[in-house]
Specification:
Layout lengths: L9 H17 L4 E6 L4 E6 L6 H21 L7 E5 L4 E7 L3 E7 L5 H27 L12 H9 L1
Antiparallel strand pairs: 1-2, 1-5, 3-4, 4-5
Helix pairs in contact: 1-3
Length: about 160
């Protein structure tokens, strides 16, 4: 099930960005990005100036949704991994913890085996980060950006 709104804190965003940056290097990838299941870009690294990450993020989420439908028809829970091979570019798509989508774009300078190996490790790290984030968000009043705002502050805002 997709969270209607994912809350992201700076600490977790920075941890995610470190994983994404490392994956670009370790997998010898051109671009790596993370998308939520609604198609919102969470993090990106690599040669992103030459890629329309917004459109690619949205299309990737649509692709996951479509293959999820195929999985249900085949009585599978989900197809967690997808690979698309082109003449110049390849795309490896990995569903991480059924929460987010990890996308790795690579060319002939890398290999599918290397990408899969590095994605496995990165997925484990990302899953840990997102589990911690979920626990943090579920704790009542924990690190809420609104925790320090009082009713008096709100009244003062509208009384001016």
């Amino acid at each position: 099930m997709v969270d209607p709104q994912m809350v992201m804190y700076e600490e977790e965003f920075n941890q995610i960005q470190v994983v994404v940056d490392r994956l670009v290097r370790d997998a010898n990838a051109k671009v790596v990005f993370i998308v939520d299941k609604n198609g919102q870009l969470i993090a990106a690294s690599g040669d992103i100036d030459n890629v329309d990450t917004t459109s690619l993020a949205s299309l990737t989420a649509g692709n996951i949704a479509a293959t999820g439908g195929m999985a249900k028809l085949l009585k599978e829970q989900e197809f967690a991994t997808q690979f698309h091979e082109g003449e110049k570019a390849n795309i490896h798509i990995q569903l991480v913890g059924n929460r987010v989508i990890l996308v790795v774009i690579f060319d002939a300078k890398s290999s599918l085996g290397l990408v899969r190996l590095r994605v496995k490790k990165a997925s484990e790290e990302l899953n840990h980060i997102f589990e911690s984030l979920l626990k943090k968000v579920q704790e009542p009043g924990a690190d809420s950006p609104f925790a320090e705002i009082t009713d008096e502050d709100i009244d003062n805002l509208f009384n001016d």
